[in-house]
From TrEMBL:
Superkingdom of origin organism: Bacteria
Catalytic function, reaction form: UDP-N-acetyl-alpha-D-muramoyl-L-alanine + L-glutamate + ATP = UDP-N-acetyl-alpha-D-muramoyl-L-alanyl-L-glutamate + ADP + phosphate + H(+)
Protein name: UDP-N-acetylmuramoyl-L-alanine--L-glutamate ligase
GO MF annotation terms: UDP-N-acetylmuramoylalanine-D-glutamate ligase activity
Enzyme kind, highest EC tier: ligase
Length: 484
């Protein structure tokens, strides 16, 4: 019987298994699914003496009866924390942790910036990492973005064999060196939930709106999971313009740094980061003088939400002692994040924009708010729980037409009709949506074709990245065809 079992054969699970193997654990990696890709990974990991069981779920009850229970279970982020086998494992006293917690135990001597939130965390993480790197720090982004956290731990503990081989397979060369200065981590609620001792130097909470309720059941549970990360952080930065976080405000977070794009008078408390006269301003204490840091116009990304992300990233950098010059350089050179309001191409004056990362109503509303109107909107996929009211209002304000794809198409069509919006078509697939969107953009003289689904992707794609890449490929092929 293995000493350690890793559940979930994704990037995080493989990195966790390799890290445990390096430490001398006898490791078994299991996944309830099977596919040609998973079989290929199984064969490769077997060469590293890591057993992989596909189409398999551990039975801890029978193992316990035979006194052969593992000492440790590590769970990948995509595996729900409260499934019966994990509840049983904890009941039996088997230590059960997430992949992020395992990485933290190896990297806790390094300061972390941990970023969480319903929306905005990927852009904030990427921009924060860019600023820290511009300042000369070795500060890899990891977690939900970049490397799995255990990959950083593998490299940081000197394993150059398995981790570098794995990264070559991924088509990227490692930028992690053995001497990591800061960890910049994007953490989902799933990763926080399964992290017991994770305690960052700086914690950032970007936004809070209903999401992942199928997993967390109630908004209160979801909030408390996020709050745990901030409570464990030495320093906290909050988006003060977020309605829900603003309500929590000083009652719970009296010593935090708050941000606002609306100016000093909207700053909660006496310290934080805000925008005034086109500048990011810092005020580090009640008695300190406000100081200009960087012009907002230096950031190439559009939208008020990206100004909020800028404030939080600059806040983290300043709390880490980074000089203003490095911040200005990084901000002006930052290209943005793939799949989040990403410009793909322009055809006949019509911009095609990929916002595949907008997987809920709030993110999709922000996407619509950030582009020129009129818009031809492509929406749909696997629907999520949440309040669609503001999103539907934004469609009425800005969309000349809506093309609906995926399993949510019929339900979205019904909701649009209910609010009196009838200029929609159910096209079902992205392949049909792109040529039709170009036709409609010409017809209505629309400025933008926007993929902003307001849905998860799992009905038609493995993840939102693959969905966004398909959109990109179809758009570029369409333009080539029209110009050729």
């Amino acid at each position: 019987m293995p000493e350690a079992i890793v559940i979930g054969l994704g990037k995080s699970g493989i990195a966790a298994a390799r890290l445990l193997k390096q430490e001398g654990w006898e490791v078994e990696l299991c996944d309830r699914n099977t596919s040609p890709n998973l079989l290929e990974q199984q064969q490769q990991l077997a060469q590293e003496q890591i057993t992989v069981k596909l189409g398999h779920t551990p039975d801890f009850e029978s193992l316990n009866l035979a006194n052969t229970s593992p000492k440790l279970i590590v769970v990948s982020p995509g595996v729900p924390w409260d499934i019966p086998i994990l509840l049983k494992a904890r009941e039996l006293g088997i230590e059960t942790i997430g992949e992020m917690e395992l990485a933290w135990r190896h990297l806790q001597n390094i300061p972390w910036v941990a970023i969480t939130g319903t929306n905005g965390k990927t852009t904030t993480t990427a921009l924060t990492a860019a600023i820290f790197q511009a300042a000369g720090f070795n500060a890899p982004a990891c977690g939900n973005i970049g490397y799995a956290a255990c990959e950083v731990a593998l490299k940081g503990t000197g394993n150059t064999s398995t981790s570098s081989v794995h990264r070559r397979e991924q088509g990227t060369e490692s930028k992690i060196q053995n001497s990591v200065d800061w960890i910049i981590g994007e953490l989902s609620s799933y990763q926080i939930e399964s992290s017991v001792t994770l305690a960052p130097k700086i914690g950032i909470w970007t936004t809070f709106t209903p999401d992942h309720l199928a997993r967390h059941k109630t908004l209160e549970n979801y909030y408390n999971i996020k709050a745990k990360l901030l409570n464990n952080s030495q320093l906290q930065i909050f988006n003060g313009d977020d309605v829900y976080l603003n309500k929590a405000s000083l009652n719970q977070w009296s010593d935090a740094y708050w941000t606002s794009v609306k100016g000093a008078e909207f700053l909660i408390g006496e310290k934080g980061f805000y925008i005034e006269n086109g500048w990011v301003i810092e005020k580090l204490s009640a008695t300190s003088e406000p100081q200009k840091i960087v012009e907002v116009s230096a950031l190439r990304m559009v939208g008020e939400h990206n100004q909020q992300n800028l404030l939080m990233s600059v806040g983290a950098a300043r709390l880490a002692g980074i000089e203003i010059a490095a911040i200005c350089r990084a901000v002006s050179e930052f290209p943005g994040v793939p799949h989040r309001l990403e410009h793909i191409c322009t055809w006949s004056g019509i911009e095609f924009i990929n916002d595949s990362k907008a997987t809920n109503y709030d993110a999709a509303e922000v996407g619509l708010a950030s582009v020129k109107s009129p818009v031809i909107l492509i929406a749909g996929g696997e629907a999520k729980d949440g309040d669609d009211t503001a999103w539907l209002k934004k469609i009425q304000d800005k969309a000349a037409a809506v093309l609906l794809i995926g399993s949510a198409a019929n339900a979205f069509a019904q909701r649009l009709q209910e609010v009196g919006y009838n200029n929609f078509e159910i096209v079902e697939t992205m392949d049909k949506a792109i040529p039709r969107s170009a036709e409609l953009a010409k017809k209505y003289q629309a400025s933008v074709v926007l993929l902003s689904p307001a849905c998860a992707s799992f009905d038609q794609y493995p993840n939102f990245e693959v969905r966004g890449e398909h959109f990109r490929e179809l758009c570029l092929n369409w333009v080539d065809k029209m110009q050729g």
